[in-house]
């Protein structure tokens, strides 16, 4: 075709109907609806979104607070990596080093630190940086008290700005069912007068997130807590503008990229509506939206820890796209309780790459305009508003926490997440799939904080205990016939066993009873899995079970695949232990299997 002819070529404009026809053809009889997926929020996601899915609202005004003022400015968020050291001198040096490498926020931990002269020197030594402070640790009232006292005697500290405080509702009442807010309220009022530019009323949804809550729940609980705090401080004589100016909201960003992005965007819109309902001028509402995000700890694993780098990278990306004021990226090894200079630097550099190399600090609402993102933002916000109204109609956040309603709702989602992970409906690389049985948890202390991987880490600790006693958990895989006929199942079984820290050894192709017996004599394992085609099992399984029993009465044999229930019952009568198959509860099966080697060492 000539160039002139190519220039005159045109294509029909795309339309949904044409796509549906093409998709149905590719699906070979399955409906397009089979491509829909559900989320833990009860939202059904389509494979394709069009302009018709856009919500009927002013997107720019809804999701980009202060957009008119920001168009000509840099969208710089604060890199709030939490620095933790053993002494104030070490903390001072570590923070100064972090600042020289790109950190632009004084974010630090005071856990196990004494509020003495060392703290005073630390504050005075870092005040010259004129960077915002950021500390939302649980029960950090002692930090706020000390800083407030210093500010009363040192006018230069009255200009300190940033975020210091904690959320008693999510951090205490959520776990205990109740908490006394009077003392917290009085301290917050007192600190606020000494530190007028510090946000001291924190709404922290991370405790809900870390117990499995979905995005809709996190948003609804944030709105309900915000309304509760408005009521409390209005009784103290504060105006709505004063209260809104002191509120800061903190989220965790999980692994569902677009859901987390839409969650933060939806919060901005609904929170603006809530502020307006208190009589705050719509234009003023924009300045009162203060948000920080931390990468999720809930979905991080102590197994194959470097995979956490990939998880945090995606979570930080979604947070930046949603538009946040502060961002905390946890080091990949933080679940172990100890971090290294390498992991801290890698975490900080994730943010620097997003800003300096991806230039996301120079774009207003990078995700704006996406049919999918705009639709999902509206859907998440709508569902969260409905849940907020339910909570309000039934007495509010404090009452429902006392009744256990909130805890029960979150626990239902957690149970669903665990069930999906244990049956591999959801994957966690290095933990429930593609696990490395050599991976060690030595040096990783068990934590009170819940994480999805904990049941699998518990399995691996059992396997390590068995190894330390001198009995290596290892299983034999008996491959029936040609390699191509048993390899798919053998690979699946090997991966399944690795999740529990059990090594596996695949036999040479077995064609006779003698081949199977030779493999057993060669390996002498207490447990074997037979892998082959279903039609081969009728003749092979009774034979192998009999052979194993004669070789050693304690040997246990499983078959790979979900087998016919009637046949399975008959084979179990003959001595078959059970089977390994997809969608099986891995945790239950692997816990049962590890007892084989625990009994061997007795």
Automatic annotation (TrEMBL):
Presence of the UniProt keyword Metal-binding in the record: no
SUPFAM superfamilies, per the entry: Cobalamin (vitamin B12)-binding domain (SSF52242), Cobalamin (vitamin B12)-dependent enzymes (SSF51703)
Keywords: Cobalamin, Cobalt, Isomerase
Cofactor: adenosylcob(III)alamin
Domain Methylmalonyl-CoA mutase alpha/beta chain catalytic span(s) in chain numbering: 39-120, 186-449
PANTHER family reported in the protein's UniProt record: METHYLMALONYL-COA MUTASE, LARGE SUBUNIT (PTHR48101:SF1), METHYLMALONYL-COA MUTASE, MITOCHONDRIAL-RELATED (PTHR48101)
Name the UniProt record assigns to this protein: Methylmalonyl-CoA mutase family protein
Lineage of source species: Bacteria, Bacillati, Bacillota, Bacilli, Bacillales
């Amino acid at each position: 075709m000539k160039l002139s002819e190519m220039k005159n070529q045109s294509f029909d404009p795309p339309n949904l109907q044409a796509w549906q026809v093409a998709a149905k053809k590719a699906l070979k009889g399955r409906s397009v609806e089979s491509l829909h997926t559900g989320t833990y929020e009860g939202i059904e996601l389509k494979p394709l979104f069009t302009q018709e899915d856009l919500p009927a609202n002013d997107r720019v005004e809804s999701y980009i607070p202060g957009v008119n003022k920001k168009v000509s400015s840099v969208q710089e968020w604060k890199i709030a990596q939490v620095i933790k050291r053993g002494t104030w001198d070490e903390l001072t040096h570590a923070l100064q080093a972090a600042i020289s490498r790109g950190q632009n926020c004084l974010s630090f931990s005071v856990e196990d630190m004494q509020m003495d002269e060392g703290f005073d020197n630390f504050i005075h030594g870092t005040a010259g940086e004129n960077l915002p402070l950021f500390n939302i640790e649980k029960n950090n009232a002692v930090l706020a008290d000390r800083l407030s006292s210093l500010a009363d005697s040192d006018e230069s500290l009255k200009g300190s700005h940033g975020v210091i405080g904690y959320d008693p509702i999510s951090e205490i009442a959520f776990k205990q069912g109740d908490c006394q807010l009077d003392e917290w309220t009085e301290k917050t009022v007192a600190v606020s007068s000494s530190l007028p530019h510090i946000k001291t009323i924190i709404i922290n949804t991370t405790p809900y997130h870390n117990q499995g809550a979905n995005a809709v729940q996190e948003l609804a609980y944030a709105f309900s807590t915000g309304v509760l705090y408005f009521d409390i401080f209005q009784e103290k004589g504060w105006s709505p503008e004063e209260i809104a100016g002191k509120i800061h909201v903190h989220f965790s960003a999980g692994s569902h990229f677009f859901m987390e992005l839409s969650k933060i965007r939806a919060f901005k819109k609904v929170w603006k509506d809530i502020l307006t309902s208190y009589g705050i001028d719509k234009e003023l509402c924009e300045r009162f939206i203060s948000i920080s995000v931390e990468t999720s700890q809930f979905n991080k694993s102590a197994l194959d820890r470097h995979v956490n780098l990939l998880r945090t990278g995606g979570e930080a990306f979604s947070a930046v796209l949603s538009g946040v004021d502060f961002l905390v990226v946890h080091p990949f090894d933080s679940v172990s309780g100890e971090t290294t200079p390498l992991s801290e630097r890698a975490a900080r550099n994730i943010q620097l790459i997003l800003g300096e190399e991806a230039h996301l600090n120079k774009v207003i609402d990078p995700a704006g305009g996406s049919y999918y993102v705009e639709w999902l933002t509206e859907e998440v916000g709508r569902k969260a508003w409905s849940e907020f109204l339910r909570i309000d109609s039934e007495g509010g956040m404090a009452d429902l926490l006392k009744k256990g309603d909130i805890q029960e709702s979150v626990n239902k989602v957690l149970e669903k997440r665990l069930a999906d992970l244990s049956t591999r409906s959801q994957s966690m690389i290095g933990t429930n799939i593609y696990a490395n049985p050599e991976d060690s948890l030595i040096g990783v202390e068990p934590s009170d904080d819940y994480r999805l991987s904990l049941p699998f880490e518990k399995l691996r600790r059992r396997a390590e205990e068995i190894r330390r006693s001198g009995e290596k958990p290892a299983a034999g895989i008996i491959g029936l016939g040609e390699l191509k006929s048993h390899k798919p199942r053998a690979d699946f079984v090997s991966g399944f066993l690795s999740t529990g820290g059990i090594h596996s050894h695949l036999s040479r192709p077995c064609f006779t009873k003698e081949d199977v017996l030779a493999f057993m004599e060669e390996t002498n394992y207490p447990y074997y899995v037979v892998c082959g085609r279903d039609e081969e099992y009728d003749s092979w399984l009774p034979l192998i079970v009999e052979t194993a029993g004669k070789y050693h009465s304690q040997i246990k044999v499983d078959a790979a695949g979900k087998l016919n229930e009637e046949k399975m019952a008959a084979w179990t009568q003959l001595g078959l232990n059970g089977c390994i198959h997809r969608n099986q509860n891995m945790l239950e099966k692997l816990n049962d299997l590890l007892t084989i080697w625990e009994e061997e060492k007795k």
